[in-house]
Description:
Elements: H1 6-16, E1 33-36, H2 51-63, H3 66-69, E2 73-75, E3 81-84, E4 90-92, H4 100-109, E5 113-119, H5 141-150, E6 155-159, E7 164-165, E8 168-169, H6 172-185, E9 191-194, E10 212-214, H7 223-232, E11 245-247, H8 272-284, E12 289-291, H9 300-306, H10 309-315, E13 324-328, E14 345-351, E15 357-363, E16 370-375, E17 387-391, E18 396-397, E19 404-409, E20 413-421
Parallel strand pairs: 1-2, 1-12, 2-5, 5-6, 6-9, 9-10, 10-11
Antiparallel strand pairs: 3-4, 7-8, 13-14, 14-15, 15-20, 16-19, 17-18, 17-20
Helix pairs in contact: 2-4, 5-6, 7-8, 8-9, 8-10
Amino acid sequence: MQQSGFLLLLCLAPALLHSVAAIHNGLGLVPPMGWNTWCTQGHCGLDVCNDAEVRAVADAMVSNGMKDAGYQYINMDDCWADTRDADGNIMADPDRFPNFADTIKYVNSKGLKFGLYTDAGLDTCSTGTRKHKIPGSYGHYEQDARTYASWNVEYVKMDWCNTKVNGTELDPHKQYAQMSAALNATGKPIFFNSCEWGVDNPWEWMHEFANSWRSGPDHHDDWRSTSSIIDHNIGLGKYAGPGGWNDLDFLMTGGQGCGFDMPGKHCPGMTDTEYKTEFIMWCIMASPLLVATDIRNMTDIMKATLLNTELIAVSQDKLGAGGDKVGEWQCGSHGDGGGRSSNPCQLWAKPLQNGSFAIALYNSDDDHSHNITFEFSILPGMTGKSAQVRDIYNHKDMPSPLKSVTASVPSHGAEAFKITPVA
């Protein structure tokens, strides 16, 4: 075996230590943590939610330890709105939320923050199983922002559907800038997430307008989707920093609809090994940690990952660096022919405060386990140095000091460690 990451690391080292100035609303100094409605009524993307579900999730987030672990947002996706009144004010669906203000007050009473969804265009992306289209915010940015602020909304996600107006496609640069200005003009700090699926390279320009931006396509409870998103975000770590984050999309930990019949689907959609990899890599890449599965019924893998305090500490590290791929360990060819790197054994790193690093040994091979070695000398400032090593998923110190760490990583698996240089 021979390590091949050194030249690659020389290119990425400045990026690992790079921080980015972002929107000036004082929010998002670390990636946001919370829950979203997108999957928990049994199917992802059908956009069904209601008052009873939101209250029950708020209760669960307090009782199951998620609030204490740092999760604070309860966010509606494309499921809550209905139409506009005669004055153009957006209204919640009265069947799903008979008193929307009371729903928000209940969430706040639990010490949690409330977030919701809108769209930059004429209509939102989904009807949410209803027989009419749901209005987007186009033409109402300022009005909607004032409404959200009056409701004590503290997180807004703005999607990018139905954006052709009078035959002309809207410009995301202009539309997100306008909504950002509208939210800031309310005087209420509101976390702003842009969702145009990374098609316009938002990591290069969205910092000025949003606190996070979707860097790629929707994430589904399927390994092909998860591994594709990991690959898609290689090289983007340098764009993340306090106030602005690459959003890899929702966490699917535990399965996306296990209480309902899902023809043609197996449930849960990934293995426990794959859910562990998902969470490790989302933390290493400093993505928002927004869970879209049913936290009212926490399975063992959901507890082991979503409540893993040491991985969460990596995500929330105050240095605010984005992690990235820093090398490879030569261990064979990729198994699926899916067009990704021919070498499945990847080395990832995220700088932490006080000179430490979080590292991940990731095996994307579809068929085989591999012994992967991470030599610390490829990291900035670690040439010739040893380090104290801790297995942060299993909460165990390794025999130290070491100049490298080796782990047997299963197919589709990842292992995570914290290394602290020895003076």
